[in-house]
Amino acid sequence: MDTVDEKPEVPLIVPTEIVVVTGADGPIGHRVVSSLLLAPDVAEVVAVGRRLRDGAWEPITRVVDARLTMARMGLDDPALVPRIESATTVMLLGPRGGLDIDGTGGAELDLAGTRTLLGALGAATHLRSLLVLSSSLVYGARRDNPVPLTEDARVRPNASIPASMERASLERLCSEWAGERGISCTLMRPSVVVGPDNGQWLARSPWSTAGLQVSDRTGPVQFLHVDDLVSAIELLRTNGPDGAINLAPDGWLTASQVSALKGPAPRVRLSRSLAVLVAGVGARLGLAPGDPSMLVASSAPWVVANDRLRALGWEPAFTNEEAYVDSDRGGLWARLTPRHRQELALGGAAFGAVAVVGAVVAVIRRRFRDDSRGSSS
């Protein structure tokens, strides 16, 4: 008698996970919430952020039977406590304010709010894991760094890079809190994060090879695509280690390789201290979207190895080159002929040098004038 092959039964996944995502109103948090709403084991996503918009995830919530709770409040709001007390996983992805450092958001962290939130999580009896979005910058941008850095490298944040110092403080705060309660704490350390959404930042960043540059910059750099960051975070939610883990693509790019990707561009090269001073003036005048201290970060290596992340089964969808090109919108410069590029590069460099000197002189004069007024009053 003929037998009919029976299809193996697919085990049914019962959604039981309740995941809290802070910084859900940021570019990374928004993508992570979208990913969580599609995860079969997630019963509820609590999206936390002051600037959450109605309908932000409507296309997904229309077709997915998942419960989304939006909490439009800060981390220190007492009304947040009942929203998070049933959490099984908490992802600290923000908020991040101030000037951008890359696709992870601003350079400023709400450390006080995070401390308050952790205190409130003491009532979350089902909490098993804490995921913290930090940065590879905690290793410090230093000339004597090995290339690449592994998770065993010592954390040496640069005092001249506030974002580096704050992320090191965030890691210490969260790991100590989790250690006291026996909760797994995954410290996620991505390299420079880029994507189509932050092309304007990349175009004006120290890694664009255009505009203001540090004259002796020779360090390699890694560009992690935002989509790869999100896929890594989703993997670490279910399989994350207790401790630090680097998030980066395979390999890295040298300064000359980045220049080859960008093509000829007008630039002004200054010493590191002068470049940071000028960038600070530009930031105060609203001419630059990024943190001036990123010039310091670009002047020395802090590239990392991704072996530990790859061992968990993660694979990047983008190479360094692909991530950079996908984020670099090109614009008018890409449509110019080589001759016009050369002419504008020469003219732009001369104009930029004059503008730099003028800006610095203006600041010095203003300070001198203010000091004179203060001494005469």
Please explain how this structure is put together.
The chain has 377 residues and is of the alpha/beta class. It is globular. The protein has helices at 27-37, 58-63, 81-84, 111-120, 162-181, 199-204, 226-239, 255-262, 272-284, 294-297, 307-311, 320-327, 338-376, and strands spanning 17-22, 42-48, 67-71, 89-92, 96-102, 105-109, 129-133, 184-190, 192-194, 211-214, 223-225, 243-247, 267-270. The chain starts with 16 loop residues before the first strand and ends with a helix. Strand 7 (129-133), helix 5 and strand 8 (184-190) form a beta-alpha-beta unit. Helices cover 39% and strands 17% of the residues. The protein has one domain: NAD(P)-binding Rossmann-like Domain (Rossmann fold, 3-Layer(aba) Sandwich), CATH 3.40.50. Strands 3-2-1-4-7-8-12 form a seven-stranded parallel β-sheet, with helices on both faces. A two-stranded antiparallel sheet has the order 5-6. The longest helix is centred in the C-terminal third of the chain and has 39 residues, at 338-376. The chain is built from 13 helices and 13 strands. Helix 1 crosses helix 7 (226-239), helix 4 (111-120) runs parallel beside helix 5 (162-181) and helix 9 (272-284) crosses helix 13 (338-376).
Secondary structure topology:
Blueprint: E1 17-22, H1 27-37, E2 42-48, H2 58-63, E3 67-71, H3 81-84, E4 89-92, E5 96-102, E6 105-109, H4 111-120, E7 129-133, H5 162-181, E8 184-190, E9 192-194, H6 199-204, E10 211-214, E11 223-225, H7 226-239, E12 243-247, H8 255-262, E13 267-270, H9 272-284, H10 294-297, H11 307-311, H12 320-327, H13 338-376
Parallel strand pairs: 1-2, 1-4, 2-3, 4-7, 7-8, 8-12, 9-11, 10-13
Antiparallel strand pairs: 5-6
